[in-house]
Amino acid sequence: MNSLLLGIILGVVFGVIAVLLMLKMSFPDKRAAILGAFINRFAVGLLIPNALPMLDPIVRGLVIGILLSLPDAIITKSYIPIMGLGVIGGLVLGVVVKLVGIA
User: Cα 8 from chain centroid?
Assistant: First the structure.
């Protein structure tokens, strides 16, 4: 498996998890919130195996998870759930990438 395919798989899985966690929440525009969350988490999953090759995948996961989650957390002022999912998800995906041995 190449790093692009792994990134797409990880992105879809992480995006679906984020959407599932949001389904019971209420938002002024729920469709936009869910779509935005999916795209953000998809990007995290896609980038961890494919970006910043000079970093260890676990560190890369943490950095990418934080960097891509921070703007949404600032805009919504929901720091703990958004940053928590970004940090934990980034670390878990980084471990997966390291275990698969792609990057």
Answer: 11
Per-residue pLDDT at 102 exceeds 80: no
- Interior angle at CA 88, CA 86 and CA 92, nearest 5: 115
Give me the residue spans of the domains in the chain: 3-100
DSSP the chain: --HHHHHHHHHHHHHHHHHHHHTTS--TTHHHHHHHHHHHHHHHHHHTTTS-TTS-HHHHHHHHHHHHHHHHHHHHT-HHHHHHHHHHHHHHHHHHHHHHT--
Question: Do 61 and 91 meet the contact criterion of CB atoms below 8 Å apart?
Answer: yes
Looking at the predicted structure, is the pLDDT value of residue 3 above 70?
Answer: yes
Percent of the chain with pLDDT over 70: 99
